[in-house]
Design brief:
Chain lengths: 593, 178
């Protein structure tokens, strides 16, 4: 193992370790900008320059591997001046309207400029051309702010396998964007927002819709209610200085009440409802295939993640019959609120304003889909990301950290632990298995602490086999069968699974796909920056949410049971079909890899 | 690159039907599909066939080579050689590489702009000429250099431009005279 000296500190590191990582081992911090741990190390921005004894030029530490005996210095006059110049040149091109920029508080360019000691703009140069892309409901692009770090390109192509973004043109005219600088809306973009989640500056941000919510809250004719996705409670605290993985559900509910929402509901309620519908749908598909010997379009894919839905519509239209017809929990909640809840409180659906707090930018696009209007008006009126809610709480003058805990409204705020885990990769599958297994076998779910270990964690593709040894009479045909399931997160991994299925290399009955790495807890609308450590911390918080519950299986949710008794009838019944299920359509395909 | 067959292909296929062009394009794609670095030659040949790279051709290439549209567009917009707009019958490229630049390439370019009445990237109203800038033909020793279609002209002076264009317009007459 090579031994190196960094600023006089000797460390021994594994062969192939970069100087940046070796420095970190030695406790030496090197500033970076284009580097993104586990995703991108390309040495493009040159901020991480270091001096190597005996080498003529400075080296980009994020890509330069160490060699034995290397003597590295990270804090010499030459290094300091070079880094500073590099950042000053970036700033000279950057369209930096910092005072009003969405990223003013967490801008990495600003942070690195402070870090390397930039105190004035020494270079007045030509600025990058500002072109605004407001074509999608989810995202806003401003090319003038882009510093060409290519993190978004790498995430979009290598992590998500979508490649909607790529550098266009050359030299100073280079723009990172869709083909030929078209709008995002006119290319195959799934609007997952992972580009914006990794953007170091304000070049790609969520479509900020806070004002629309304030307007509704100020409108006396509107009854304004809110739902929050499972993943928010494990991340919102980060907007107020809590470490990742701090559970803030109680404070979040208090904040939403203080903002003025007249109903605070839990998307988790709808997640439990989703399990009832989707679990039943899976069992009926199995029955169709095994008993009726008809085409049942197996494996069935989950349909909660709107980025995945758009991905399938663009790239795998032949798989659309395999997608569960269930609306996502967000849309189910909206549909129930604007039908059953509206009736109960004596309001017309159009007088109810449904706001969703989602970890996701694609949810903004989902809520915009014209077919998502089972009551005649949009199921969901406005979707705010976790980040937007954080800003809204600040705008409202609420001191989040000092808030007391409170609980969601009943019955649409009632849920089980199975709904909590919708927030992370493997969770929807585990929730579905907890219920489907008990329906089929009539026995308690036989996994320790109800967790299916093989489908937990951050591996890209996970699988599990669940043998069914005994059944209740209704599901007799499943006796002796083994249910094979798979879980993929990150659309690049979804693509891998689908390609293997198409080649006949693997066979599954049920597959969970979450668009974003780590699942919704790593969504495109979550507080930045979400690396694997943050993902793990949030996932741990979500499992802890689940484990602290009395009820941890969706079919045990009394509020959901009551909704079926009072309103829906039974899972996949007529009413469910009308308001809780949907259809998909192939989108104009422009092949992207 | 400029003296390769692809660029000259346009003259001999002017009358080809869209189906015929597509058939030829697909042949080329089949030839390059599994070769690393196949995208650039396919684009070059496609531009030779069509005279430029129409959007539907770019999309077709993207699909057929299984390359993302944004990446194909990235390559096309990176190289000044590629054009997504229809071009004139003849392509005038003025080199502004370092050697040509310091030896008056800029003045030669200005002279062409004036003579043809167009800016860089534009095509004359009669669709005869398109004017482009190039970065080095490898003829630095004889700078400033230009090309008209496949023909390289060296040590070009701004005052000689009309003569070069006139000569180029009558290749047959010039041949007869020789």
């Amino acid at each position: 193992m090579p031994k190196v000296t960094i600023d006089g500190i000797e460390v021994e590191v594994a062969e192939g370790t970069t100087i940046l990582d070796a420095a970190s081992t030695a406790g030496v911090h090197i500033p970076t900008l284009c580097f993104l741990k586990d995703v991108q190390a390309i040495g493009a921005c040159r901020v991480c320059l270091v001096e190597i004894e005996g080498a003529r030029d400075l080296a980009a530490s994020c890509v330069m591997p160490v060699s034995d005996g290397m003597k590295i210095r990270t804090n010499t006059p030459r290094v300091r001046e070079s880094r500073k110049t590099v950042v000053e040149l970036l700033l000279s091109e950057h369209d930096g309207d910092c005072t009003t920029c969405n990223r003013s508080e967490d801008c990495e360019l600003q942070a690195v400029a402070h870090e390397v000691g930039v105190t004035e703009n020494r270079y007045e140069g030509e600025r990058s051309k500002r072109a605004l892309d407001t074509s999608t409901p989810a995202l806003r692009r401003n090319t003038g702010k882009c510093i060409l770090c290519r993190r978004c390109v790498t995430v979009c192509s290598e992590v998500q396998g979508v490649t909607a973004l790529f550098p266009q043109n050359r030299g100073f005219k280079t723009v990172v964007g869709p083909a030929f600088n078209k709008d995002l809306d006119s290319v195959a973009c799934v609007q997952c927002g992972q580009c914006g989640a990794v953007c170091p500056v304000g070049a790609i941000i969520e479509n900020d819709q806070i004002e629309q919510v304030w307007a509704a809250l100020g409108d006396p004719t509107k009854h304004v209610v809110v739902q929050t996705a499972p993943a928010i409670r494990a991340a919102l605290g980060e907007c107020f200085g809590y470490p990742p993985g701090t559970r803030v559900k109680g404070k979040m509910v208090s904040a939403l009440r203080r903002i003025g929402f007249q109903g605070v509901f839990d998307t988790n309620f709808a997640a439990d409802l989703t399990i009832m519908e989707e679990g039943t749908e899976l069992l009926l598909r199995l029955k169709k295939a095994l008993v009726e010997k008809q085409e049942a379009h197996l494996p069935m894919f989950t349909s909660c993640s709107p980025g995945w839905i758009r991905f399938a519509e663009y790239f795998y239209p032949e798989m659309l019959p395999n997608l569960s017809t269930c609306k996502s929990p967000q849309q189910m909640m909206g549909a129930v609120v604007k039908s059953h809840y509206a009736q109960k409180i004596g309001k017309k659906p159009e007088d109810i304003f449904m706001v969703s707090i989602m970890p996701c930018t694609a949810k903004k696009a989902e809520a915009n889909r014209p077919e998502m209007n089972s009551s005649g008006v949009s199921d969901v009126d406005v979707v705010l990301t976790t980040r937007e809610l954080g800003r809204m709480i600040t705008q409202a003058g609420i001191d989040f950290r000092s808030l007391p805990d409170s609980t969601m409204d009943s019955p649409l705020g009632e849920s089980t632990g199975a709904a909590d885990i919708f927030a992370n990769t493997g969770g929807v599958m585990e929730a579905a298995l907890r219920t489907a297994y008990e329906i089929v076998t009539g026995k308690p779910f036989p996994f320790e602490n109800l967790h299916v270990k093989p489908i937990e964690g951050l591996d890209g593709v996970k699988e599990a086999s669940i043998p069914i040894t005994e059944t209740v009479p209704d599901w007799e045909f499943l006796r002796g069968a083994t249910l094979k399931v798979a879980v993929a997160h990150g659309l690049g991994n979804a693509r891998k699974v689908i390609e293997r299925i198409k080649k006949g290399e693997v066979q599954y009955h049920f597959i969970e796909i979450m668009t974003c790495p780590g699942g919704c807890i790593g969504g495109g609308g979550q507080p930045r920056m979400t690396g694997n450590d943050t993902r793990k911390a949030r996932i741990a918080a979500i499992y802890s949410e689940d484990e602290h519950r009395d009820l941890r299986k969706s079919h045990e949710n009394p509020a959901v049971q009551k909704l079926y008794a009072e309103f829906l009838g039974h899972p996949l019944g007529h009413k469910s079909h009308e308001i809780l299920h949907t259809k998909y359509a192939a989108r104009a395909k422009l092949k992207a890899r | 690159m400029l003296t390769d067959k692809p660029d000259s292909a346009c003259q001999c296929t002017e009358a080809a039907s869209p189906e015929e062009l597509r058939r030829r394009l697909d042949e080329i794609i089949a030839e390059y599909k599994d070769k690393p670095g196949g995208l650039i030659p396919v684009l070059q040949i496609a531009q030779g066939l069509y005279g430029y790279l129409p959007d539907e051709v770019v999309r077709h290439i993207s699909m057929a080579l299984d390359k993302p549209y944004s990446e194909v567009a990235g390559v096309i917009t990176f190289y000044s050689f590629f054009s997504t707009r229809p071009r004139g019958e003849h392509m005038v490229r003025v080199c502004l590489g370092t050697a040509c630049y310091v030896r008056g390439g800029k003045q030669v370019l200005d002279a062409f702009k004036k003579e043809l009445g167009i800016e860089v990237g534009e095509t004359t109203a009669d669709r005869k000429y398109t004017l482009e800038v190039a970065r080095c033909f490898g003829a630095c020793g004889l700078a400033p250099a230009i090309t008209i279609d496949d023909e390289v002209h060296q040590r070009v002076k701004p005052t000689k431009i009309r003569e070069i264009l006139a000569k180029h317009m009558q290749p047959a007459a010039a041949a007869k005279g020789a």
